[in-house]
Specification:
The chain is of the alpha/beta class. It contains four helices and four strands. The chain has a four-stranded parallel sheet with strand order 2-1-3-4, covered by helices on one side. Helix 4 links the parallel strand 3 and strand 4. The radius of gyration is 13 Å and the shape is globular. 29% of the residues are buried.
């Protein structure tokens, strides 16, 4: 099983990794970090995405390359936007969890 974890300034790779390894033992897990690092920018981005959908959010650097190379079955996110383009290109994607 291949899992892509999208981390951010609140949920770090170490935290998400621990949960994913316990929940999905043996899964291959990779991570990308959603870039907002200042609390005010993070909050503004979250509100914008909640009001207007994931397409308007700050993009996740490298996500399209990761989808093409890794082709995850599961994407786990906290606030990082998962766009329609990502869903369309992720051929093996079965679940998006948050």
């Amino acid at each position: 099983m291949k899992i892509l974890g999208l981390t951010d300034m609140v949920i770090k790779e170490e935290q998400l990794g621990k949960v994913l390894k316990e929940t999905f033992p043996g899964a291959e897990v990779r991570y990308l970090r959603w870039p907002p690092t200042a609390r005010d920018v993070f909050s503004k981005e979250n509100l914008n995405i909640e009001k207007n959908g994931p397409e308007v959010g700050m993009p996740i650097p490298g996500i399209m390359e990761m989808i093409k190379e890794f082709d995850p079955e599961i994407i786990i996110t906290h606030f990082a936007p998962v766009t329609g383009e990502v869903i369309e290109k992720a051929k093996s994607l079965e679940v998006i969890g948050c």
